[in-house]
Specification:
Arc Repressor Mutant, subunit A, mainly alpha, Tetracycline Repressor, domain 2, 9 helices, 208 residues
């Protein structure tokens, strides 16, 4: 679902409602057809408006796509941040971060396709946003690792990249292959594997 930032309890203006409608319609079309095969006419038709109405809200197709991409990236980072903050138990943190990636990639809106499987991935602004999102997710995990181990910031950051990269890749592969392993079982298996590796690093403040 496309997010709209308004104060809690504040009703959307007609313009905000129309913009949200356009974004939702565009997301459906982009996910189904990709960026290059999608036209502004198709987006207007999916939203039930005329093409000039679309241009009242967005200068062009790329700007519309980037808005959706920004929303998807923000949703993933919020999920990772919430997972890490939800507990002080590091084993549970690993599992909940895996759950965050699986939930994002398995969401029925399929926004993950715009973030991780875009046919516009080589476009400079798209690539920059995706790279920043991957970097930010890795940094969130690295911050926890650095705080709880004797590793340097650089070492923790490398592990953050490894963990979040594995989470993204495994979730996408699981969804694509339909391996017959239930989602919760996949998360349990993968997080157990990750924990067996990360738990070998000594704590910087071991329990007494």
């Amino acid at each position: 679902m496309v997010a709209v930032e308004v104060a809690a309890g504040t009703p959307l203006s007609p313009r905000q409602e129309r913009r949200l409608l356009l974004l939702e319609a565009a997301r459906r079309v982009f996910v189904a057809r990709g960026f290059h095969a999608t036209s502004m006419d198709e987006i207007a038709e999916a939203a039930g408006v005329s093409k000039p109405v679309v241009y009242q809200h967005f200068p062009g197709k790329l700007e519309l796509y980037l808005d959706l991409l920004d929303d998807g990236c923000a949703s993933l980072l919020a999920a990772v941040r919430d997972a890490l903050a939800s507990t002080s138990d590091n084993r549970t943190r690993v599992q909940r971060t895996y759950e965050a990636y699986f939930s994002f990639i398995c969401a029925p809106e399929e926004t993950y396709r715009l973030v991780f499987e875009s046919d516009l991935g080589h476009e400079r602004e798209v690539a920059r946003r995706v790279e920043q999102t991957n970097e930010a997710a890795a940094a969130l995990v690295a911050e926890v690792i650095a705080a709880d181990t004797a590793l340097s910031a650089q070492e923790a950051h490398l592990l953050g990249w490894a963990l979040t990269g594995a989470m993204q890749t495994a979730a996408r592969r699981w969804l694509r292959e339909g391996s017959g392993v239930a989602g919760e079982d996949a998360v349990r298996l993968l997080s157990a594997l990750a924990w067996r590796g990360i738990s070998d690093f000594p704590l910087s403040h071991p329990p007494e």
